[in-house]
Amino acid sequence: MTNTDAAQKSAVRFSIGFKLITIISILLLLSLGAITVLVSVMVGADVRVTAEENNFSVNRRSASEAELLLSMTRSNTLALLDTLDALEGVPGGVAAQTTDFFFERNPDLAFIGLLDEGGFSRTLVNEQFFAAAELDSSAAAAFAASRPDAASRCARGELVLLNASPAFGVPVLAMYCPRPRGGETGAVIFFGSDSLAETFGEGGNVSLMINDDGDILVHPDPSLLRAGESFKDDPFDKIVRESPDRRFQTLYTGAGGARRFGAFQKLTLANVAVITSVEEAVVLEGVAATTRRNVFLTGVVLFLGVLCIWFFSKTLSVPLKNLAAAAGRIENGEFEVKLEAKTRDELGLLTRSFVSMGRGLAERERLKETFGRFTNREIAERALRGELSLGGETKQVTVFFSDIRAFTEISEKLEPQEVVEFLNDYMTRMVDCVDKTGGVVDKFIGDAVMAVWGAPVSAGSPARDAFNCVKAALMMRNSLREFNKDRGGPRKPLIRIGCGINTGNVVAGQIGSSQRMEYTVIGDTVNLASRTEALNKPFHTDILITEDTWGLLKSVLIVEEMAPVSVKGKEKPVRMFAVVNLKPQTGKLARPANLKELRTLLGLSAPDLQKVDLSGEEKKYKIG
User: For a surface tag, which of 145, 214, 330, 452 has the fewest beta carbons within 10 Å of its beta carbon?
Assistant: First the structure.
């Protein structure tokens, strides 16, 4: 594609329909998008405030219930122990009845043990709790024995609350209450936390209770309690411990990277805190759902708008697309376009003008095609554009000559019509090789072909032009072998050719008069190429190149140097090279790899240069 073609294609990048749809779509997106964003921001802010208030309220409620449960458990247990101390020595089993009645009224309270320096001095066991949970009451004693630090703190007057769930297998709390009486230092109260945990999960808000060691005491998920999980690794634990406030709420990033609203309240008992949190994404899920609905509505409105605009734009775009398609066909050489002007407006006028223009271009193309049959197409196009005039310029080109061996003898054995038919077939194949490699057929001289690479246009460098010329000669060699497959005999004799190639400076341009001119190249380079072609006969070769051409292509060709030739008009002998093949790109040996193999392939024998008789020809060269 030329630069002009590319400019024409890039000149119309967007159709009218596309532009209309784009403009209306942008307006709709801006308006509906702005409304969606404003609604999302405003509603999101309100939802955020409501969520913070709700989370704080849930935290206060959970903390109140936790503090009430702990206070009642502590006070009721101490009241029971005081009562039992008062009933000590009263006959009739009143103390046992009082204990049973207490456990009936407090079914979640599982075990009470009075501590002294040696462990439990007395124990009160709720057998129904352990039976219902299929547990052994010895778990209480085992847990107390494993935590002497809690007993020491209790002896110093601290109220300690621990998670005993790992020892029991069910959610159970152990409360160490100071109660100095005689040799006793306090009481350990084991009670279930299921009822409290049920109130700690409300909607998306999750509450939990931790002690001063960061152990999770109460949580809606009992598996965390049985595993004895800690809250220390959560970023909110540091906020709770470092805050001087008893209750506080903030937005923080949790351990999993999710942003959460977190609220806490520190209880007055046992130095524990109740924490309530909810994920920001959960809070704003309603806002996100509303945004999604708004986006969907925007898409529906946009789709309907685009649909209406699309139908409207059809009244403009369809005729314009037909004209654009016609322009494309004209660009590809289909000048006879069939368009019907259906309207009497500017589009109809443009359509009629297109049809008239196509007819004019078709006539011009027929003229160029006819002219191109008698000369090169590139030259014909330049002539039609008025770019060629008398005169020339010096260029470095590669000149090619080819000739059919024994053509006079062949033509004498054939009828004139047969000569013309086989020459047309032969020339078609040879010219095709020239065209495919960017060469220009300068002229036909009987059965000979003269072609040039590098004028009027070049492939970019003399070396590239020379390579294309040699490549064309090799293509002719292969094409001629295909041509000869169906030949043989007196009416279809085998055809052999010789090709001569030379590179050098020539004068290229229009030669002739203002009434009749011909584009050609002249100079010593042309003469040497012609004489090089003639040397194929005594050398028994099919493609010969001169030293000037070989110097440009020595890295890509397999050649064999022939005997030097003294050419008329040249002071020094000219080095000649027989072209065998192109050098392989992969390192694999190419066939033919040498001149012997090539001659075998072409059915030629090695010559005896000493016996070559040049007496019948003009003394234009001398071998050796």
Answer: 145
